[in-house]
Structure formats: C-alpha cells, structure tokens
C-alpha cells in the first residue's frame, strides 16, 4: 500500500511534495491527473472514475460530493490547489481471532490539517481476485465509517478525513474490514500483498519533510508545471493513443542492440543535427531510464534558430492536425484531444519571442512523439491494405507486423513494431534481382541442392532512442531496426 494524505485547498498552490516515490516519479502527477479527469464538464463524477477511485455505486454513505469538489477545484485551478503530506510511517497489524486489520498512519505536524483532508490509498498494481467490498472505520474519518469497492480497475481509494489543528503529531488508526465474511486473506492481499501480488508490504515506509512552502516557484511547484508535468503527461498520452496488445510480446532490452555513438541534445547541439532529427520520420522511444525521484529531473534545453523554430512549429501543427483527424475518425480515444492540448500548453512558445530553452526541448519531444504515433497508425493502415490486396496464388512476399515489448520504461512507447517479411517467392517474383530469378529457375528444374529465393527485408528504418541521465539528454540511433521493404533474394 502506498499511502499519502491529500489536502484540498481553495487558494490554489501547486502540487508540492519533498519526495516522490523512488520508483514512480509520476506518482503525484498521475494521481492529480486522475482526479482532474474524475468529473465531466457538469461537475459530476464520470462512471469510469468510480471504479478507478474505488467508489461504491450503492452505499450508505457516498464521498462523491467531496470528491467532486476536489476534482472540480483541480480543473478550475489548472491542476493546482493540491498539497501532499506523506506519513512518516505506516503500521499494519492484525488479530488472528478478528476479521479487521488495523492500519496506523504516523503523521507529522502540519497546518494543513485545518483543511479538509482526503486519505488516499494508492495501489501499485491492480487487485486480481475479483471484487472486494471494504469498510474503513476511524474517529479521524468524517463520517467515522466509510466504504470502498475494490476491483481490477481500482488504483486509488479516497477517504474523507476530519479537520484538526495539526499542531501535534498524529496517529490515524483506521480499522479495515471486508464486507463479506471469510475475505480477510483477500483484504491482506490488498493491504500488504500476497498471492495476488497486488501491493507492497508495510515495510515500505515513507519518512519525508512536508512541503508547505508557498513562495512562488518553491518546492515542486515550478517543476510540476514544467518538465515533470510535461514528461508525465507525455507518458499518459502515449499510453492512451498507441495500440494495446492482447498478449505480451517478447521482451527486448534496448542495451542489447547495436547503436551509433550517442548524440548530446542540449544548448550546444549543432543546427545540422537538429534539422536531421526534426525531419526524420523514424519511430522514437523515450527511455529516461535514470529518471526517478532520487534523481530529480534536470530539464533538457535546446537553442533553435528562428528558422528552425518556425520549422518545428509547422511540423507540430501538421502532426497535431493528423492526430485530431484520427480522433475524429474514431481511431484514437476522445480523451487524447485533452491530453494533446495539455502537452501543447506545457511546451508552448511564442511565435515572435525567444522561447525558453526548456520549452523548446519539450516542443521537440512532443514533435517526435506525434511523429511516432502517426507513423504507427500509417504503418498499420499500409499493412492492412497489403493483407487485403488481391492474390490468386496465396500470400506473396510482403511486409507484416512483428511486435516486441521493450524493457520497462518510465515514458514509452512500451513496445515497438519491427515488422518482418513473410510470404512466398514464386514467379513472378516480388521485388527480386537476377540472382533470385536464377535460384528460382534451378529449383523449377529440379535442382534440390540449392535453396529457393526467400522473402527477406531489403530496406530498414532506424529506431531513435531519447534518454536522460546525470550528464544530460542524449539521442541514440539503433540502425537497421524497422523493416520497411521486402523482396525475394
């Protein structure tokens, strides 16, 4: 269980926290985005958010009004207006002869307790044992008893807390009990992990300083509205728009591939190199393997000339229009439009004013992401047309899809379509040469000692990998990676 106490504030500071989870730098940003998306334009909670937030559809008490207020406020303040306070420790205990489990949150002093606290329990991975109704009871909750309904799509449980002075350390003791009898083991799976592997154990404790400094630009406020928010939003956008695979493809480690020497992306990057990258249509992987909360984000920066800035802007507009057309055609989900607008906002630079280096870098990443998305769907369309083409002699040599799953990345995409060539090489040969024709001739004459022509890739696209580490941002090019043309050889 990954716990935190979330306070709603009406006067609009940005999301702040002195520490983000070690293995999840987007943890807070993802949570705020989920709450932002929890309500529609009418201020009512949307049905899809009920499961995500563990809200029971029928309950004696519903936290919907408070959660709706929280979500609407986040929307109104453009995802600001939330502060996060982490408990210093979490203790989970149980009695063998009782059905309930006691969870104790050791909370530090903070004036934030005067506000309306919302206790959030966030799950690292979804519950896999069906559905589980849970009751939470505590004098620190308001009302004292609240319910949650946990299923495979539940990532957060939100419980409304009681305001207090906050001038002393507090220990919130919450009794947790499954609504159905004989479900204690399932409840333990939810809280501390088990056979379902649903969560982490209570040994994972958080000891942090609370981030309550409200000075402009302090704490994570400026970071959350720039680099970190952009990268997290970019990851959510890619997850939302790229095709999902029903089965997990074979795993591929990026460091196992041959690569050209890495090229630094920064203020000193040559204009010639930047022109080549911007004009390249090769798919891009955003690795950022060294990015974690213990490694704060050092924003990349670019210094583009006015002419190249204009080129970047035009290509962004062209790719944005292609993405919007895909949304209109139903190829991409409608929510992609709002995420795209958010990315444009976080990477925007003025047409007639010098752009901040960080904004140029974010706009550059956005272009490469949009190029990757449009290329993915254009390639799918091409492959479908190839399969649907008329043929009276069975499948002929042509391009087909071959997907591999990439090592766990903090951004994405999480998979890549490398393509492959498959089909027969019989007369008339597809995209062949004289050698293949002679091979086929020998086979037809009954010379079985020679191999026949094979359907193989003739041309490739590279795969571009943008990574970040302690020394900055780099582009690595994996050559001859994506098959793009087939023939008989």
Count of extended strands? 18
Instruction: Trace the largest sheet across and list its strands.
Output: 3-4-9-6-7
Task: Give the structural class.
Answer: alpha+beta
Quote the distance from N terminus to C terminus: 57 Å
Strand content: 15-25%
Low-confidence blocks of residues: 9-22, 200-225
Number of helices: 11
Whole-number mean pLDDT: 78
Helix content: 25-40%
Return Rg in Å.
Answer: 27 Å
**What general form does the structure show?**
globular
Q: Describe the biggest sheet?
A: 5 strands, antiparallel
Order of helices and strands: EHHHEEEEEEEEHHHEEHEHHHEEEEHEE
Can you characterise this structure?
The chain has 489 residues and is an alpha+beta fold. It has eleven helices and 18 strands. The chain has helices spanning 27-36, 47-52, 64-76, 184-192, 221-224, 227-241, 271-279, 306-328, 335-347, 357-388, 434-444; strands spanning 2-8, 82-85, 89-94, 101-107, 116-122, 132-137, 145-150, 156-160, 170-178, 251-252, 263-265, 284-286, 398-400, 403-406, 415-417, 420-422, 455-469, 472-488. It has a five-stranded antiparallel sheet with strand order 3-4-9-6-7, covered by helices on one side. The protein has a four-stranded antiparallel sheet with strand order 2-1-5-8, covered by helices on one side. Strand 17 (455-469) and strand 18 (472-488) form a beta hairpin. Helix 7 packs parallel to helix 8 (306-328) and helix 9 packs antiparallel against helix 10.
């Amino acid at each position: 269980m990954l716990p935190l106490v979330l306070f709603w504030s009406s006067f609009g500071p940005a999301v702040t926290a002195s520490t983000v989870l070690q293995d999840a730098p987007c943890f807070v940003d993802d949570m705020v985005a989920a709450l932002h998306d929890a309500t529609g334009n009418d201020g009512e909670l949307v049905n899809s958010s009920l499961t995500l937030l563990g809200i029971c559809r029928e309950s004696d008490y519903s936290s919907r009004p408070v959660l709706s207020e929280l979500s609407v406020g986040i929307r109104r303040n453009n995802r600001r207006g939330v502060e996060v306070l982490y408990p210093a420790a979490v203790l989970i205990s149980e009695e063998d002869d009782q059905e309930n489990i006691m969870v104790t949150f050791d909370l530090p002093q903070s004036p934030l307790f005067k506000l309306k606290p919302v206790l959030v329990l966030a799950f690292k991975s979804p519950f896999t044992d069906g559905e589980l109704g849970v009751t939470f009871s505590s004098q620190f909750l308001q009302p004292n008893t609240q319910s949650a309904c946990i299923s495979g799509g539940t990532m957060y449980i939100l419980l409304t807390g009681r305001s207090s002075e906050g001038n002393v350390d507090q220990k919130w003791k919450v009794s947790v009990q499954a609504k159905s009898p004989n479900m204690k083991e399932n409840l333990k799976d939810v809280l501390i992990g088990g056979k379902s592997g649903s969560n982490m154990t209570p040994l994972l404790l958080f000891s942090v300083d609370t981030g309550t400094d409200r000075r402009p630009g302090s704490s994570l406020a400026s970071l959350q509205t720039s680099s970190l928010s952009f990268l997290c939003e970019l990851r959510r956008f890619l997850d939302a728009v790229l095709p999902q695979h029903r089965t997990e493809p074979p795993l591929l480690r990026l460091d196992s591939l041959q690569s050209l020497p890495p090229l630094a992306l920064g203020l000193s990057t040559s204009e010639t190199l930047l022109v080549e990258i911007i004009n390249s249509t090769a798919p891009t992987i955003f690795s950022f393997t060294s990015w974690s909360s213990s490694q704060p984000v050092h924003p990349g920066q670019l210094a583009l000339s006015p002419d190249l800035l204009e080129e970047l802007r035009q290509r962004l507009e062209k790719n944005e229009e292609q993405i919007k057309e895909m949304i209109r055609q139903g190829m991409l989900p409608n929510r992609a439009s709002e995420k795209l607008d958010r990315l444009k906002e976080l990477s925007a630079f003025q047409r007639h004013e010098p752009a901040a280096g960080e904004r140029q870098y974010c706009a550059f990443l956005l272009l490469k992401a949009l190029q990757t998305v449009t290329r993915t769907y254009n390639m799918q369309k091409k492959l479908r047309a190839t399969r649907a083409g008329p043929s009276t002699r069975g499948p002929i040599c042509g391009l087909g899809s071959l997907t591999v799953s990439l090592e766990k990345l903090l951004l994405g995409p999480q998979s890549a379509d490398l393509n492959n060539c498959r089909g027969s090489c019989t007369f008339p040969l597809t995209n062949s040469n004289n050698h293949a024709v002679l091979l086929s001739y020998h086979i037809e004459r009954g010379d079985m000692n020679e191999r026949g022509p094979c359907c193989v890739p003739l041309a490739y696209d590279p795969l571009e990998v943008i990574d970040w580490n302690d020394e900055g941002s780099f582009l690595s090019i994996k050559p001859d990676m994506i098959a793009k043309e087939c023939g008989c050889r």
